[in-house]
Amino acid sequence: MPLPSAPTLTAQNPTTQATVQSGTAQQAPAQIPFTRAARKKSRLIGQYGPTTLATTANNLPPISIPANGYMRSLTLDITGTTSGNSAAVAFANDAPFNILSGVAFFAANGDTILSQMDGFALYALNKYGAFSTTGANDPLRDPTFSKTTGSGSTGGSFHFQIDIPLEFDARDGAGALTNMAANQSFLLNLALNTIANVYTTAPTSAPTVSITITAKYWSAPTPANLQGIPQQQAPNNANLTSIVQVATPNVTPSTQQDIQLPNVGNTIRSLIFIARTSSGARTEVDWPGVFGLEVNNDTWEYLTKNNWRYQMAKQYDLFGGITAAPTLNSLDNGVYVYTGFISDGASGDDVVAGSSNRDLMLVTGSGTGLNINANTWGSGIASLQVLTNSLRIPDVASFYAPMGI
Question: What kind of fold does domain 34-403 have according to CATH?
Fold first, then answer.
């Protein structure tokens, strides 16, 4: 028997021909996309406290995250309460966010999703990491944010909300984590800082700290809606994971340095750099006058300090200056963000957004050489913290699907 011929313009493929009735091809019914079929929900995960802030760091008991659908983020609602104060309370520059001396988030199999970091680094990740469709997702924009200084009776009290971000693009749920198995729980670790690190002048009595944790998630849609139309039951990128890794490469004061960044092997969205002095203070004056980014010995960026600051101000719409303590509508002292992978014009020129087109994100392998060139560090630099937000992408086709590729 001769083999069937390949389909041509004049001869239909037999498989295709079998689906044609009265000149009309029978196609599979369209599905309602996941983010239209699912529902945005939230639930209480757990509560800590009230716990009195102490002179030593306090590791809080780990908390398991119950099954809840496709997890988008966790929100930490943190309140510090004082009473009867008479001291002229003053907060440290990283406060109140540094009330958390440690934050880490793990998958059920032990994989690290959010590497151990301090509360100020988590603040920087929220503000500059583009985990929303707008540029600046600043916790200071919360109308309930408060930080009470001075000698009043409640001096030293504070309140803020901050996210552990997972989903970075709500258009298709990219980054939302599958959390459907009741016997396989994600794990959140938190630690409270010392009173001496939170305040430069502490309140008369140490504050009590309470933390409420809620999860935001997509519910799992039913196979069809009430009209019988099929629904997509999982995001296109259901197995994609957004991870945040922390590195602290060695820096040498008053030198030009070429530093290789270690956290490669995935697709990188952003890099956040936090420079500090030996006292732990964030430093602006010690940032190099010229900064270079190199990929496999190819220089991709040449940024003067002034160039970079103006670029960040435009991209995040933060034109209030550069401040030592977190300030609304301002850039943060010693914090620099490389945004070239998520500012591709999807939401307008010079805008950083979670809804970027994804095509500029940096695909790396285990052997990729990713280097920064500092020319030249100031004399006071002592440490550099590098937050790398990258994506583990098991299905590249679905990752680029929203872009029409």
Answer: Adenovirus Type 2 Hexon; domain 4 (2.70.9)
